[in-house]
Amino acid sequence: MAAKKDSDGDTMTLTEQDIPRAELPKPPENCTLAILKRWLTCRGAKVSGKRNELMKRVKDFICSGLDSKNLIDPDGGINIRNKRKKLGSQEEQETTLIDFPSKEFVLGVNGTRTQISLTTLEKKDSLIDSFVVKGLVISDLDENVFIEVPALYTRPEIPVLKEDIPTQGDTDQWPHLCGVCLPEVDADIGLLVACDVPTVFDLLKVKHSQNGGPYASRKSMGWVVNGPLGRFRKGSRAASFLIKAYPEFHQMVKNFYDSGFSESSADDKPEMSQEQHRFLSGLERTIVLRDGHYEMALPLKDHIAPAPNNKPQVKQHAHSLTRKLQRNKDLYNDYKVSEANCSYLRFLWWPDGNLESSLEEYQMVVHLFGAASSPSCSNFALRKTAEDNSQYFPEAVLSMVKNKFYVDDCLTALPSVKEASQYARDLRLLLSKGGFRLAKWISTSRRVLETIPEAECAKEVKSLDLSKDDLPVERALGFKWCVETDTFGFKADIKLKPPTRQGIISIVGSVCDPLDLAAPFVLPAKRLLQDLCRVKLD
Questions:
Q1: What is the rounded distance in angstroms from the CA atom of residue 476 to the CA atom of residue 379?
Q2: Average pLDDT over the chain, rounded to whole?
Q3: Where are the stretches annotated Disordered (predicted)?
Q4: CA 400/CA 410 separation, integer angstroms
Q5: Is residue 464 included in any domain, yes or no?
Q6: Is residue 466 part of a domain?
Q7: pLDDT by residue (tens digit) across 190-239?
Q8: Is 105 inside a domain boundary?
């Protein structure tokens, strides 16, 4: 190995690769030693003791047309007969990677399933599934230099952007990089060559950095440009924000909370109180499926005393209510009792709604909707329905019943119309096994709504022509949900108040905005409140 100055005055390191090149005859009839010496792949034939071995290898490898090796060149995975271009990149890491979109290798070679451990700035010793492929050769763009790769490990993708690769336009901005040729390759980055292939990093020539610009190094496969390219030097500004984390502080807080709840350090399973245990055990003991509906006892406490007889007070309240209903006929309609009320509760009402009749005593046969225990009982019955019918429905549908219901509302999102239609059908069928009927269906997809019976759709949808009418705006868990655009919003009914601090508090507090969608409008009023409090004005 020796060094000399080239015509540009740059330092140049000479190796065996800097020998005269000559094209190999196509197809070669005979491989002579003279041809092997001139052809770059067989430069080792000059070395005494290796000629016979190299002549035999080249004859088998090239002259005989046998696929004893598969080639990957820097612009992609290829084999001798089937070339595919992919852009290559050089990194000083320990393992050479190639990206494959699937387990079906585009190279036409078989790999062995394995796992690799990757350590980055973000993660340490992260195990990743991969395939190891051996016996491959890479070449430069001109297919003059061929280097064997000891092992390739596949990855679904390589996190390197094509925009990060220097181009000829970048080098042309720097006079000291004159002579550096970076050919444009229209291909994705598919190969990351690491330092386990040291021959690729053989240094032949260096163009040193000047004026804070990049430097270029001539490797066996071509030029490599490193350093600031100056793409955004004009009119650009850079800003940084540093966050320093203290892991020991996080552990101190965790230890503080664990000291009060020692069971949380053993596992993450939610623990229940004794009252919750009694509630669930009572429902488990009394729940039964009868005539297509679940029945369960009221979750009364064991020590509760017998309730006093308050029938006289109820009668007095009913007489007072009679006078109100007779004065307001519309209010009378609002006080009608539906059949689906709550169980084990006695009440007084007029037979057939006739206010002129005497009051009679009735008893409800279902759980009262407004009772404090009703949401828990309803959720328990839903889960019981899923458990009792788990062998007939997919796990995803059962999970939806357990995790996507908020009391009697179910809100979920699915990736396709086909899945949404199937889930809607299975969910209706599953809950019907427990006596539940899902109604008021609404969806952002008209095709899904067409698969749901009209009687079970939301009232606003029933009167629509799904082929041309816009979908309505619905209320979903306190928000305004625009179904047509699938966006959330809010509607604030602002009433005028006196221009006082108390009036501003009343207006700000009247805006129901759990997700702070209205924050740009509400925050100025809150800042005004702070200023008023600071100067002590009412």
A1: 19
A2: 70
A3: 1-25
A4: 8
A5: no
A6: no
A7: 778 877 788 888 888 888 888 888 888 888 888 888 888 876 545 556 66
A8: no
* Cα–Cα dist 435/387, whole Å: 14
| Beta carbons within 8 Å of 273's beta carbon, 6+ residues apart | none
| Residue at a domain's end among 186, 203, 226 | 226
pLDDT at 239: 65
Question: Is position 282 within any domain?
Answer: no
- CA 360, CA 100: separation in Å to the nearest integer? 78
Q: Secondary structure of the chain: what % helix, strand, coil (to 5)?
A: 35, 20, 50
**Contacts of the segment 90-95: beta carbons below 8 A, 24+ positions apart:** 90/192, 90/193, 90/200, 90/201, 90/219, 90/221, 90/224, 91/192, 91/193, 91/194, 92/194, 92/195, 92/201, 93/192, 93/194, 93/195, 94/194, 94/195, 94/196, 95/151, 95/153, 95/194, 95/196
* Number of Cβ atoms within 10 Å of the Cβ of 388: 14
Of 91, 70, 73, 90, the residue nearest 81 (C-alpha): 70
For 501-523, what is the mean pLDDT? Answer: 83
Cα 10 to Cα 3, 64, 91, 172, 207: the distances in Å are 10, 42, 24, 17, 6
Provide the residue range defining the domain that includes 26. 17-66
- Work out how many domains the chain is built from and give that number: 3
Tell which of 201, 226, 251 closes a domain: 226
pTM, rounded to two decimals: 0.41
State what percent of residues in the chain have pLDDT above 90.
2
**SS3 for 447?**
helix
**Closest C-alpha to 97, from 187, 159, 163, 162:** 159
pLDDT for position 229:
81
Distances (CA, A) of 255 to 72, 169, 244, 268: 53, 57, 21, 14
